[in-house]
Amino acid sequence: MTPLAIAALSLSMSTDAFAAAVGRGASHRPPLGKAVRNGLVFGVIEAITPIIGWSLGLVAASFVEAIDHWIAFGLLGAVGARMLWEAFQPVEAFDAEASARRGLLGLIATAIGTSIDAAAVGVSLAFIGANIWIVALSIGFTTFALTTLGMMIGSAVGARFGKLAEGLGGVLLIGIGVTILVEHMHWLG
């Protein structure tokens, strides 16, 4: 993968965590320390899940080598389409009291929920032979930075901005899937 593709993938994978962080920040502005802690939890989990998917993809890669580009296209397209669909759903109200009661376990559950798509993307990365360590570190760092930023600016920009970012992430993922398919099918030369 090119550095530009890694950057686009990292942004795409972190947009749903960013959207969740903006929603949290929109209801109450957390102190910097709490925003950084939340960013670390989201970033670490978002970095681990594509490695898990990549490992599973390596196991299956030899069995599906002839159609791996179609699988990568399908997975990235499906995740991107889901992100686009969610971007057009109404903004849910954030319940600060319920979130505070859930504490760290609630934060981890939210981080896992927003990173499941990264596991599917990890499967696709195994099929195209991407360097998972560089990609996972990039995804994790980008998620950490955007989640921390999202929590800090949430009250200023509102939850709708997070939805816009999630939609853009979906478009980027679909674009990466199309690029993989075009390159593997040699449609442009």
Keyphrases for this structure?
about 190 residues, mainly alpha, 6 helices, single chain
Task: Tell me what you see in this structure.
- It is a single chain.
- The chain is mostly helical.
- It has one domain (3-185).
- 85% of the residues lie in helices and 0% in strands.
- The chain contains 6 helices and no strands.
CA radius of gyration: 17 Å
Largest sheet geometry: none
Beta-strand level of the residues, as a percent range? under 5%
Helix content: over 70%
Secondary-structure-derived class:
mainly alpha
Distance between the termini: 19 Å
Mean pLDDT equals 86
What general form does the structure show?
A: globular
Q: Please report the number of helical segments.
A: 6
Could you state the order of secondary-structure elements as H and E? HHHHHH
Low-confidence regions: none
What is the domain tally? Answer: 1
Number of strands: 0
What is the element layout, followed by pairings?
Blueprint: H1 3-27, H2 32-61, H3 68-87, H4 96-128, H5 132-157, H6 159-185
Helix pairs in contact: 1-2, 1-4, 1-5, 1-6, 2-4, 2-5, 3-4, 3-6, 5-6
Explain briefly what this protein structure is:
The chain has one domain.
